[in-house]
Fold these 2 entries.
Entry 1:
Amino acid sequence: MSHDSALLKAVMPSSLSSSQLHREAVARLLQANIANASQEALWIIEEALGVNRVRLLAYAEDPIDPERCQRALALIDRRASHEPLQYILGSQEFCGLEIGVKAGVLIPRPESELLVEATIALLRSHPHPIVLDVGTGSGCLAISVARALPDAMVVASDRSLMALRLAKKNAQCYGLHSRILWLAGDVLSPLLSRGLAGKVAAIIANLPYISHAEWEHLPPDVKEFEPRLALDGGPDGLDVYRRLLQEAPGVLAPEGQVFMEVGMGQADRLCEEVANTKLFEVVNVQPDLQGIPRMVCLQRVGHS
Ligand SMILES: C[S@@+](CC[C@H](N)C(=O)[O-])C[C@H]1O[C@@H](n2cnc3c(N)ncnc32)[C@H](O)[C@@H]1O
């Protein structure tokens, strides 16, 4: 902590202006090695004070209410402990939607938008398709697909009841709650008792795929704050996907497709394993914006 910063900590927050608050916030974030310190400090201050940037700048030298100042600095300290910004601000943008997030549920990532785009492209002219989002988390995929395909029946499942509660709440914000069937349970087991066997046109899956070796090297923002249940895919990261592919033929319609998000280096391995089962053929593997093979698309062949 800088000398100035230590001094401020001791006397604060009696009468800081927003420009002083911003300087102090940036100092605390830089001290904690937060890369985008100035921008993040602004977002957090806007949230804590309930004002936008224009107002902050217009009244930059006016003293701020000490209670609000405290609140802002408490949020800054959470970020300085490497809690993800999205948990602090309470939301993340995904496919143009504001998705609510909270500790215990994975924050949506931009690369997962590939799954939504592929599902929409496949089913746009399909009459009344049934789409399953397995491991729905915040519901970002199910909600985006339900919104883009008004004819579809969407099923969203997760092992985590906390995730399902948040996903339902997010769907409510967009008036889509009743368009989605919410199921709790492990991989595809909750679907079988619902009469959905052989009827699902597409399964979208962003299931845990971090291997144990990768887990050790995750940044603290992820490793210490995001739920392990959402990330840990077993020794080589593919345990949950192997189970999905064993169970998927039972719920997919003939020629139904599976879209799976995978990590770096996993697409080839998964495709090889799939070729050995003869239950699916690989339609394609799509890269994300960084060129990493990110989404494996399979089609069911034959009948189980
Ligand atoms: C990587 S997160 C993805 C969340 C969300 N679909 C997204 O794209 O942001 C994986 C989700 O799968 C759930 N999950 C993990 N293992 C599962 C299992 N065996 N059966 C069902 N859901 C599971 C986790 O609770 C978590 O919500």
Entry 2:
Amino acid sequence: MTADIFSLAGRVAFVTGAGQGLGRAMAEAMAEAGAAVALFERDPELLAETEAALVEDGARVLAIAGDVTDANALAAAIDATVQGLGGLDIVIANAGISEAAPGLFHEMPREDWERVIEVNLGGVYNTLRPALAHMVAEGRGKLILIGSMFGLAAAAGIFPRPAYAASKGAVVNLTRELGLEYALHGIQVNALLPGFFRTKTRPRNPDLARAMAAYTPMGRIAEADEIKGAAIFLASRASDFMTGQMLVLDGGVLAR
Ligand SMILES: NC(=O)c1ccc[n+]([C@@H]2O[C@H](COP(=O)([O-])OP(=O)(O)OC[C@H]3O[C@@H](n4cnc5c(N)ncnc54)[C@H](O)[C@@H]3O)[C@@H](O)[C@H]2O)c1
């Protein structure tokens, strides 16, 4: 049956930044497709909310509080997932932030730059290294990096966010690099590049929401749930011959 190739029954997924927004939607998607899910999130309240929602829907869940900038916390979380849920098949490196406010590069405080790079790139490093150590030993796995359409184009077309654009550009080429490095290890590495999606924190105000919709050829921004199908595709057997690639969900922005 066609649906079987999208099934995640018997799989274990690990999602960072799973407390809200796209991370929560993708954690739900993994569970809805049949996977057990480990949730990694820095905010304990958001973590508990996602955990409760997934448990209510009958999922097997492991909730782990921690920050992706803490390499030791992630190594321990990956171990706890393998022990607690019986393996590790899918990792979604989702946790990410942008600058506190848009601004030109030469005016950007160094702390802002460092924080964004530390979370968006350092966090990916901290997440994928212990996960890959496990997956290489098993000879299979799926890594999904969450980039942005602003990894393939400048953000300044709508607002200047130099650290965000630099970090997401790096995520794109790291995806290609890891796709090749692990192609013979049975591990597929791909990235999902969202355009504008509504979450609890974004857009930050109604003017920005209108500007984002106007910037998007479809004339609207997406709801968080609209990421689910692409996440299931990249996590499942359906994408077994795809690696080192970007899947863009942007309402047409990059087609312009
Ligand atoms: N929403 C969009 O329009 C959009 C567009 C393109 C890309 N993205 C990317 O999607 C990912 C998720 O974005 P979102 O919009 O859902 O964000 P969000 O702010 O709504 O949610 C992010 C979640 O990650 C958690 N988090 C943040 N920093 C963390 C850290 N250091 N350690 C652990 N958890 C942390 C937050 O507490 C929150 O629960 C990010 O990588 C973002 O860059 C989002």
